[in-house]
Amino acid sequence: MEKLKNYIHGEWIEGTGNGIPLYNAVTGEQVAVSDTEGLNFEQALDYGRTIGYKNLSSMTFYDRGEMLKKVALYLLERKKKYYELSYKTGATHTDSWVDIEGGFGTFFTYSGLAKRMLPNTPFWVDGETQKISANGTFLGTHILTPSEGVSVQINAYNFPVWGMLEKLSTSLLAGVPSIVKPSPYGSYLTNAVFQDMIESGILPEGAVQLICGEPGNILDYVKDGDSVLFTGSATTGRKLKSLPSVSGNSVRFNMEADSLNCSILGLDAKPGTPEFDLFIKEVRNEMTTKAGQKCTAIRRIIVPENLVGDVQNALSKALDQTKIGSPLSRETRMGSLVGKQQYDEVLRKINILKTENELIYDGKHELVDADYENGAFMSPKLFLNDAPFTKNISHDVEAFGPVSTLMPYKDAEEAAALAKRGKGSLVGSIISHDEKFVAETSWKMASQHGRIFVLNRDNAKESTGHGSPLPTLMHGGPGRAGGGEEMGGLNGLHFFLQKTAIQGSPDILTAITKVYQQGAEKKYADKHPFQKYFEEVEVGDSLETAGRTVTDADIVNFSNVSWDHFYAHTDATSLTGTIFDKTVAHGYFILSAAAGLFVSGKKGPVIANYGLENCSFFKPVYAGDTMTVYLTAKEKINRGVKGRNIPSGVVKWLVEVVNQRDEIVCVATILTLVAKKSPFIDLKDVQKILNGLTENTQPQWGKMSPQQMIEHLEHGVLTSLGDPEADQCFTPEEHIEKYQDSLYNHRKMPKDFIAPFLNADGSLPELKHKNLDAAKQSFTEHLKRFSIYYKENPQAEHMNFVFGKLNKEMWELLHKKHFTHHFEQFGLI
């Protein structure tokens, strides 16, 4: 039987012991063996702290976000084999989708967050700068840097893929190397996904390691700077947290434990209402999805005391209709538990629940393409606790399977009190259309819950469900649930980051943070900052404008244009008792006039105004006052651009408006989209570049001669003129949009692309010009024709063999890329 290999200190290593046999939860057949005996855990931790930390922490947040996206895309292409393994864990197709593609989705989400919101630096400036001196020469702020250690991540058996990727999404993005320790059960699926992550070559050396089997004494070697993330039972979690190596070395510890989550049916949600039907459907789903093996599953069903019978009947019917059996069957809606050992453990907990609660539903389901003897199948079980304020077992004991307990309540006060008797939960839900009931119950139960999910007819179509943790929201809970926090958008990164206060002068803080601080030295140059490409802009680049004297006519005209006739701008007789001496200029006029002073009218790399932040007005501006503006590049934010958008970044500019007395009257931060410099040649430079091409110029790749290359480019130009019109496009219709979008990005053409229009034997067309000089002349003449043609026919479109029908803009982009590709082929640029 195949032994699962472990991946530590950059090598795939097999354990030296007998290991743990892993079985197919549906058929009982052995699948693999997990074994960690003989592994050097101390060496694995040191490898992560040194090689892994060095490689990951030196990357920027932006680049780590791009890394997550590439890994997720790589895994997504290989998902079919993961599903085949997932079915062996007892998971249905839907269960597997949540685990597998839900895990990939977490990587995609964090990649998007990084590229939208995180800096292109290895550190992250957190919060606003604090002015801690009277004259502003001494400032303070905070930066976040990767904690200098390794993260040991211990995952549960219920989600072999999502459990791993959910934790890695934040640790890798934070720049912290990780050691993944999945539960042995289902670890063959984790192992398969992990193998592909390594084989992709995308992750830097030492970024991730994998231990498939028992963790041994790995936690004996954790040190200050390391972290431990644990998902599993609260009992085990507390033991690990109290280990001397963990508590004594101040090792960061995050626990996400089992919890007795509840769902509350509102007093208004009577049979016949949409909410009643939604409640039954949601409880049924949470009892049967993953066969109830979810830390977020509904364990306590809290309903109005007069509706207990209605809920029991409706839920029993819904459970009766749930087909149980082999995940390979299309009929199956609920699979098996992860294995016989787990089955025995759930049965033990069921017997404890029976001592105090009545078993009111125990469906004897016929299995689809499976049998109870070989597989770890268990039918759903519903208990009734008729006195939930005196009978406590259902608030204390969790059967981690398709098991839940129904219990009555009288009013909102009782519903919230019962919810809190779980002593800390990951999630609680309320299904009601009564806003007052929902609000009152939510406030009262919030202190004992990590998440509250409210469902009703208004959000049902788009709801993600009671049991679905989302990357942008916190996953964790107080008390019994472990007191931990995972994900929650960018907040999930903070666990892995060291927060450090930085104090110093404005120049020093600017140098450290790469964000311009007011009072720091400004860098003036002849070139207008708005004429610089994103890569050329430097933090501190500044412009001092000419002055503009505000007139009464300015104030009156702005009132008329904006329709802002607030009395302070228009009625001098109403100013008694106000802060104004006379009619005052509008704040937005000051901003508009400032923009008029600092913008560059000439077309340049600045694409658009992207937004406005932190605008404050400090002094009134009256007619006769003269405004001068200081514009300074404050911060640069790299930006992922999709589709047919110009590759660009965001530049934040500090705008300081002063009056004739050098008093600051307005400070704001404006955001602009600034184009990145294209790596492709401008068409007007072609003639000059061609001067360097001779008959003796040798290609750096491919087999073209100089003349063949020029005639090939000429053919492309003629095609863009419809002379002759290309008769077909060789790219399938479903890929055309993607190909056309690629014209807008700055990625160069591949060197090994085989043109689909070549002769059958791959040879190039025969030469049509007598020599290279004649070919050059003809090519440049047709290029001039191209420019004139699209000025006269701006709406014209012509077919391209690869990219389909293209307009003027697309043809220009294609020619720039194509010319650059071949000019680089011959070493001309």
Automatic annotation (TrEMBL):
Key words of the record: Oxidoreductase
Designated name of the protein: Phenylacetic acid degradation bifunctional protein PaaZ
InterPro entries per record: Ald_DH/histidinol_DH, Ald_DH_C, Ald_DH_N, Aldehyde_DH_dom, HotDog_dom_sf, MaoC-like_dom, PaaN-DH
Name of the gene encoding the protein in the UniProt record: paaZ
Annotated ranges, domain MaoC-like: 539-639
NCBIfam families: PaaN-DH, PRK11903.1
Pfam families membership: Aldedh, MaoC_dehydratas
Ranges where the record places region Disordered: 460-484
The keyword Oxidoreductase belongs to this UniProt entry's keyword annotation: yes
Ranges where the Aldehyde dehydrogenase domain occurs: 12-499
Record flagged with keyword Oxidoreductase: yes
Superkingdom field: Bacteria
Originating species: Chryseobacterium gilvum
SUPFAM superfamilies in the cross-refs: ALDH-like, Thioesterase/thiol ester dehydrase-isomerase
